[in-house]
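User: quick one, sequence for these tokens?
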């Protein structure tokens, strides 16, 4: 159609008619005069709309799915991140609780022995200088740590400081084969020297070859001159085996250490020795023996048995051989 005055006038008339029909349809509601025409148009154009919708919807659904998938992925990633953070927090809390328990136990031991200690954390196991049983702690000369200081934890003797740096130090563990410490037996005061044997019990040479010692006896550190490298009274371990005495000048026993050297975390370096020897005060309380249950059995004779026994002995009516012989004798 050409753009002429007539065509413009026709377009204006069509628009006016359209607005008029819309107004009549809105005011008429369900009784609208154009409702029939609208239904007819829906009947004609409905299938076409459904076909177009069917062709377009899969694309729209795919786009929506991708968009929702991205949203779900983001939410999943966020949940996984929160879950990992929560696990890390719980793990950290468990570890902190474990460290607090170790620290509390160590402080109690230090309090009983009147040791002035500097707490430290194990940051490495096994030094580079060989195959020695050593640990590295995060305290050094800047913290007052010096060579030949006693190291302990809440269980007992850990070792002694051998090398000191500004912020770290190396500790030779008590189970190292090059480690030796003077010991004293609880109660009997028998003296000896304990040496490490790696993952085996410590070997103790008692100075008295005739010393009375048995399994379960406990040992503590005897102490060194000027309290270096060892302060007195630190728990060492429990006797697990006693070698038979062969008349030697010394006697050998084997001691299971109180300390677990493969699971060290929090330790304390004794920076101030006690004013007096604590002796056996630092040893843990002895476990109470478990009582062995005893069973008493009382046998009560049955009344029926007693009655039968009395009847058989007194009546003479039994079927036993002696009674039969007695009857024959009477008949004769």
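Assistant:
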């Amino acid at each position: 159609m050409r753009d002429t005055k007539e065509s413009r006038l026709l377009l204006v008339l069509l628009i006016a008619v359209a607005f008029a029909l819309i107004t009549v349809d809105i005011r008429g509601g369900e009784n609208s005069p154009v409702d029939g025409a609208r239904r007819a148009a829906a009947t004609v154009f409905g299938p076409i709309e459904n076909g177009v919708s069917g062709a377009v919807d899969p694309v729209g659904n795919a786009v929506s799915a991708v968009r929702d998938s991205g949203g779900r992925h983001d939410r999943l990633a966020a949940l996984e991140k929160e879950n990992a953070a929560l696990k890390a927090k719980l793990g950290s809390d468990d570890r902190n609780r474990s460290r607090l328990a170790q620290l509390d136990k160590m402080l109690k031991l230090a309090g009983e022995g009147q040791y002035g200690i500097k707490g430290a954390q194990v940051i490495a196991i096994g030094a580079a200088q060989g195959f020695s049983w050593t640990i590295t702690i995060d305290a050094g000369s800047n913290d007052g740590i010096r060579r030949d200081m006693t190291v302990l934890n809440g269980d007992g003797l850990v070792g002694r400081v051998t090398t000191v740096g500004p912020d770290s130090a190396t500790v030779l563990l008590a189970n190292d084969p090059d480690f030796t410490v003077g010991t004293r037996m609880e109660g009997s005061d028998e003296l000896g020297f304990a040496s490490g044997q790696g993952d085996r019990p410590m070997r103790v040479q008692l100075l008295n070859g005739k010393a009375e010692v048995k399994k379960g006896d406990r040992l503590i550190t005897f102490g060194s001159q000027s309290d270096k490298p060892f302060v007195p009274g630190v728990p060492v371990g429990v006797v697990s085996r006693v070698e038979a005495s062969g008349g030697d000048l010394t006697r050998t026993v084997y001691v299971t250490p109180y300390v677990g050297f493969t699971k060290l975390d929090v330790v304390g370096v004794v920076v101030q020795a006690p004013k007096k020897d604590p002796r056996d005060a630092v040893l843990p309380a002895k476990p109470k023996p478990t009582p062995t249950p005893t069973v008493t059995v009382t046998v009560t004779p049955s009344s029926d048995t007693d009655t039968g026994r009395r009847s058989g002995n007194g009546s003479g009516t039994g079927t036993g051989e002696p009674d039969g012989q007695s009857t024959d004798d009477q008949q004769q």
